[in-house]
Write a structure and sequence with these properties.
heterodimer, A: mainly beta, six-stranded mixed beta sheet, five-stranded antiparallel beta sheet, globular, B: 112 residues, mainly beta, 0% helix
């Protein structure tokens, strides 16, 4: 089955700096890659997603890149703000109902 | 309405109790999910209902029993749970399979 690895597990940046979180997946049939943000005590919420027919997608300060050949995808957050502090989960889906999550990255943005 | 609503928010139950978790969505989504999330871990899929039929059961112990009475409601019946079942139980829904999942705020379950 699908396996998603996520790095780093913890990331600390200064406000205004960029943050990059990287994931790899194992199943070449995966074609949908969402990223969820979970603030402490709250529900996971989708922040951006990408499908396998696209190499890059951007939404304001957030961008995701996908390298299908290498089975890598990454989340880039620019001009980080304290409210970006949260746990971020990458995930992969093969088109069915099963989404496999990475282990999560705890992002701290220091003011 | 883009909300998934779960009740109760918190639940403490003994190992001999029977309780139920409830989930509701009115977005017309045809897929509904139960996830279990332990502290500092990702959500772990338990069950998926598609068009009110059980589509996926991730080898969940029978002390957890899902039910989908209609396209808007999803229940999780709990019986004879163990302390290690204590976790945040998240309900989610999506329009189809590979698409955005909307999560409820979860039920924090403690088994004593």
């Amino acid at each position: 089955g699908e396996n998603v690895e996520q790095h780093p597990s913890t990331l600390s940046v200064q406000e205004g700096d960029s943050a990059v979180i990287k994931c790899t997946y194992s199943d070449s049939a995966s074609n949908y890659f969402p990223w969820y943000k979970q603030e402490l005590g709250k529900r996971p919420q989708l922040i951006i997603d990408i499908r396998s027919n696209v190499g890059e997608k951007k939404d304001q300060r957030i961008a995701v890149t996908l390298n299908k050949t290498a089975k890598h995808f990454s989340l880039h957050i620019t001009e980080t703000q304290p409210e970006d502090s949260a746990v971020y989960f990458c995930a992969a889906n093969t088109g069915g109902f099963k989404t496999i999550f990475g282990a999560g990255t705890r992002l701290f943005v220091k003011a | 309405d883009t909300e998934v609503t779960q009740t109760p928010k918190h639940l403490v139950m003994g190992m001999t109790n029977k309780k139920s978790l409830k989930c509701e969505q009115h977005m017309g989504h045809r897929a509904m999910y139960w996830y279990k999330q332990k502290a500092k871990k990702p959500p772990e899929l338990m069950f998926v209902y598609s068009y009110e039929k059980l589509s996926i059961n991730e080898s969940v112990p029978s002390r957890f029993s899902p039910e989908c009475p209609n396209s808007s409601l999803l229940n999780l019946h709990l019986h004879a749970l163990q302390p290690e079942d204590s976790a945040l139980y998240l309900c989610a829904s999506s329009l189809g399979g590979a698409g955005e999942a909307f999560f409820g705020q979860g039920t924090r379950l403690t088994v004593v």
